[in-house]
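User: Phosphoribosyltransferase. Structure?
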Amino acid sequence: MSGKKFTYTENKHVIGGSMYFENRAAAARKLAEALSEYRGKNPLVLAIPRGAVPMAKIIADELEGELDVVLVRKVRAPGNPEFAIGSVDETGWVYLTSHARDVGADENYIKDEVSAQLETIRQRRAQYTPVRPSIDPAGRIVIVVDDGLATGSTMIAALHALRAKKPEELICAVPVAPPDTVEKVRNNADRVVCLSSPINFYAVAQFYMDFPQITDEEVIAILAVA
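Assistant: Predicted structure:
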């Protein structure tokens, strides 16, 4: 895609071709370093909840930017809620992977699953930013952060939703993602910053020494301070 950049940051201490992170905070500090050219330009740093919210807070602070969330949800496979067959954004736009039909997701299933995920998005918006609207990304440098990508479906939905709001520059920033996912995502962003893109990728958690679940309460507390 013309005009788009892909930034891959190599690490001198890569183990077996992969970069490993102590925790999300350590990954966030490395991302902030890779994004340092945006410091002082008031970037809007948007987290995909929940895991990326504490990371985005660190990055926003380091870059002297603003913090908010972009709400998207994965569309789950029938009988396997951990396996994503697509995603839906806050507007109701749906992205489906090429294998969605192969796992038994017919039109009725997808319609019901999308409705359920949209309801979760509405509930989270009411929880996370109850006293203010989401920050307008129009004309802003927008950095979308996740703690890692597997299929990339939620990131693609997030980037699609934000592109429609006309940011000046739209950046995807993640610590780790497999090469094929990076290729899919880069077509939806002006720039992708990925710290590690290992071939032997099974799950995001394998690249973290400490990878606890982030609760809604933690997200609400971070956003309240922001």
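The two ends are 35 Å apart (CA to CA). The helical segments are 24-34, 53-63, 107-128, 153-163, 179-186, 216-225.
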